[in-house]
Amino acid sequence: MFQESLRQEVLADLGAEGETLQRLLEYCRNLFVLPDTAEPWTLPLENEAHVATWDAYRIEAGTDAFATLQRYIPQLNIPVREGISLSDHYAGVARRGEPFNADHFGGRLKLNAPEQLSLLIHEHQAGALPVLHTTNRNDFDLLNQALLHRSEPRIIPAAVNAQLVAGFINWHRLALHREAWAASPDVVDTEQNWLIERARVAKFEKWRFQDRFLILCSHPYSGLSASDLGLQKPESEWVARSDQLRMEHEFTHYMTKRIFGVMQLNVLDELIADWAGTTFVFGCFDAKLFIHMFGINPPGKATAFGRVHEYTSALRDFPDCLSILYRLTIMAADRLQILTQQYYEPQRRHHFLMALTQMSLELLARDDADELFNEALESVLSFVGD
User: Which residues contact 131 (CB under 8 A, 6 or more apart)?
Assistant: First the structure.
């Protein structure tokens, strides 16, 4: 309740009142609640079960990742076509795990440059994840459409060049589980018994068939060139750093999902993830750089194609809310730069990161943000451990 009043003070000072105030309080509410655990949390987190199977795909793939993935991931064979997800053939492959038949779809999905697609396993403190990495932007769009948008030709914003896919049904892994289940001496492998086991797994052990992975495209971060951002770097170097920044950004989302069970399309989540990415790549956090990459122009307007639009759709019909939120974001970023300069130590970055998850945009924007941040830091020390 005390933090709620502090949040209201900041929003009221920015002109929020009535329904506008309530909408912003709800939008900016921090859902990162520290779990009640007896054991300190230590890094790196253990890899999720699906990573080992994807590593086997990687080893088998060699230099032809796409062909290997099409063998094991049937959804990746379905052509991208308007309305295709409404067909029974699509339901059979994607929702029932039936084998893909090209005749049912008039062919199979083709990439523009399959040789530019690689599959790697990226090690991280949040746990490793498979990464589908391409240097071809059109193929990045196709992979997103095929794996995230049910093979429908959805528009992927130009500023978005990485996508974390969660809850993806891997029928190959479910088939591997059936083989192991059927090999048990006390199991009678009939279709009826398998349906019972499959229902049990779907209810209690989704980790056996639901995968997480990252789709990433080599492209300037936020779709902005080095010159757009005023960076004195060759464009090739900026693209390479963009890949690093993008990877750290997405894995920070993954970390909050694993620890708190939360990963939102929200400005606070993006600020935290961009903080992690820029400190990882540049060793510091630059508020002006963040605001530019995010797509906000001071004193508080969004650029036409900025990333910020992807994370504020809940307030799209409330311009007064958006105007205040943009100014609040600038204030929070400015204060975060100061906090980083004062308290950030690279060797203890996970402590800073976890403390940051216990703040909110309003608390970061306050003049006494340093006191509140130190309280948050104290609260996470025993939880995070060294």
Answer: 119, 120, 121, 122, 213, 214, 215, 216, 247
Tell how many helices (H) and how many strands (E) occur in the chain: 16, 6
At 157, the amino acid letter reads P
Q: What is the pLDDT of residues 278-306, one digit of tens each?
A: 999 999 999 999 999 999 998 889 999 99
Q: What pLDDT shows up at residue 38? A: 60
Beta strands in 189-280 (DSSP E): 210-217
Side chain identity at residue 247, one-letter code = M
Distances (CA, A) of 97 to 91, 94, 107, 192: 8, 6, 18, 17
pLDDT 10s digits, 117-176? 999 999 999 999 999 999 999 999 999 999 999 999 999 998 899 999 999 999 999 999
Distance (Å, whole) CA 315 – CA 374: 31
What is d(CA 321, CA 4) in angstroms, rounded to the nearest whole number?
18
Write the CB contacts of 116 (distance below 8 Å, at least 6 apart in sequence): 134, 135, 136, 139
Would you say the pTM of this structure is higher than 0.85?
A: yes
Could you tell me the end-to-end alpha-carbon distance of the chain, in angstroms, rounded to an integer? 31
State the chain's maximal CA–CA distance in angstroms.
Answer: 69
Q: CA-CA distance, 107 to 202, in Å (whole number)?
A: 31
Question: Rounded to whole angstroms, how far apart are CA atoms 139 and 135?
Answer: 8
Segments in 62-190 forming alpha helices (H)? 65-72, 88-90, 102-105, 137-148, 171-182
Cα separation of 361 and 275, whole Å?
13
How far is residue 61's CA from residue 81's CA, in Å, rounded to a whole number? 27
Instruction: Give the alpha-carbon dihedral of 134, 139, 140, 145, to 10 degrees.
Output: -150
The alpha carbon dihedral of 100, 174, 247, 85 has a sign of positive
Domain ranges of the chain: 1-31+264-386
For 162, the enclosing helix (H) or strand (E) is: strand 162-169
Q: Are 129 and 251 in contact (CB under 8 A)?
A: yes
Q: Rounded to an integer, what distance in angstroms lies between the CA atom of residue 210 and that of residue 306? A: 32
Q: What is the DSSP annotation of 61-97?
A: HTT-HHHHHHHH-GGGGSPP-TTGGGSHHHIIIIIT-
